[in-house]
């Protein structure tokens, strides 16, 4: 079975409205699995759907404790908001947060160039100021630049004015270097509330979370990162890695690209940027 080959996987019904852009960030163990939700939402058993792990559970059934910072499922339908891309295309997106820096980002760019893969980088304004040449290189090599705020505040905890200022100031800095005002925003910590999401949608931004968290900032090894990705990748996956300044322990994350890219490509997966995945512009 190759999940990335449409000919080689069973037909999958859309289990509920809005599914293509949704995937839970957290898994919970089998005992929490509510009775009957799968037969209620769609007529086939979850073990017949290779995309769903056995303990897949829609976000709306999780309580706040279990889902952590997870936000309501309904927001994906109401706003320009996504955790993953369409499941009917064999596409996967690599995303790197908190950059640029002068150690890891150039190494990541070298690896991506080696494999001819384009990725999306969510940059912090304070690092864009420090390393403008790295941002220019990123853009020149065909990668997409997104906005990750100026200095990484928790958007839920700051005022609306501060939130708007963080986005607009960083967007303008990126525009000066790349020629476009980025459409894609990733909130620091994945933290966002409905009022701020509504503003971003009205302002023609798109807020993107992730479906696979590599936890690379903890110093995770390349092997552990690639095992996590192979266990969880599905068409439409958005993978979260970091390209943060040098004190972060990201060597494993950089090395993991050597494992992730060829192996997923051999299964037929294409690596795309977020504007490609969502068939939209990188520019606001
Ligand atoms: Zn971040």
TrEMBL record:
Source domain of life: Bacteria
InterPro entries: Glyco_hydro/deAcase_b/a-brl, NODB_dom, PGN_GlcNAc_Dac, Polysacc_deacetylase_ArnD
Record-linked Pfam families: Polysacc_deac_1 (PF01522)
Domain NodB homology: 90-272
Protein name as catalogued: Peptidoglycan/xylan/chitin deacetylase (PgdA/CDA1 family)
Upper taxonomic lineage: Bacteria, Bacillati, Bacillota, Bacilli, Bacillales
SUPFAM superfamilies, per the entry: Glycoside hydrolase/deacetylase (SSF88713)
Species in which this protein is naturally found: Cytobacillus oceanisediminis
Keyword annotations: Hydrolase, Metal-binding
Molecular function GO terms recorded: hydrolase activity, acting on carbon-nitrogen (but not peptide) bonds; metal ion binding
Keyword Metal-binding: yes
Keyword Hydrolase: yes
One GO cellular component term noted in the UniProt record for this chain: membrane
UniProt-listed GO biological process terms: carbohydrate metabolic process
């Amino acid at each position: 079975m190759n999940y990335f080959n449409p000919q080689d996987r069973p037909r999958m019904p859309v289990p509920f409205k809005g599914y293509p852009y949704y995937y839970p960030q957290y898994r919970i163990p089998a005992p929490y699995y509510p009775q009957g939700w799968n037969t209620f939402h769609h007529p086939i058993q979850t073990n017949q759907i290779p995309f769903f792990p056995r303990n897949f559970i829609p976000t709306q059934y999780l309580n706040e404790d279990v889902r952590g910072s997870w936000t309501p499922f309904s927001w994906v339908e109401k706003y320009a908001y996504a955790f993953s891309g369409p499941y009917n295309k064999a596409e996967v997106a690599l995303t790197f947060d908190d950059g640029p820096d002068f150690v890891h980002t150039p190494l990541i760019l070298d690896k991506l160039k080696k494999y001819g893969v384009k990725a999306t980088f969510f940059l912090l304004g304070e690092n864009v100021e420090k390393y403008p040449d790295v941002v220019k290189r990123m853009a020149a090599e065909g990668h997409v630049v997104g906005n990750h705020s100026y200095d990484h505040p928790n958007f839920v905890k700051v005022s609306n004015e501060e939130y708007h200022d963080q986005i607009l100031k960083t967007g303008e800095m990126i525009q000066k270097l790349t020629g476009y005002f980025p459409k894609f925003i990733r909130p620091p910590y994945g933290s966002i509330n409905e009022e701020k999401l509504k503003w971003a949608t009205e302002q023609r931004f798109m807020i993107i979370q992730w479906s696979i968290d590599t936890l690379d900032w903890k110093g995770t090894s390349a092997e552990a990162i690639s095992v996590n990705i192979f266990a969880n990748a599905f068409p439409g996956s958005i993978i979260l890695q970091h390209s943060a300044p040098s004190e972060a322990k990201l060597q494993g994350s950089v090395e993991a690209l050597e494992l992730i890219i060829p192996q997923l490509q051999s299964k037929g997966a294409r690596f795309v940027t977020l504007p490609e995945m969502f068939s939209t512009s990188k520019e606001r």
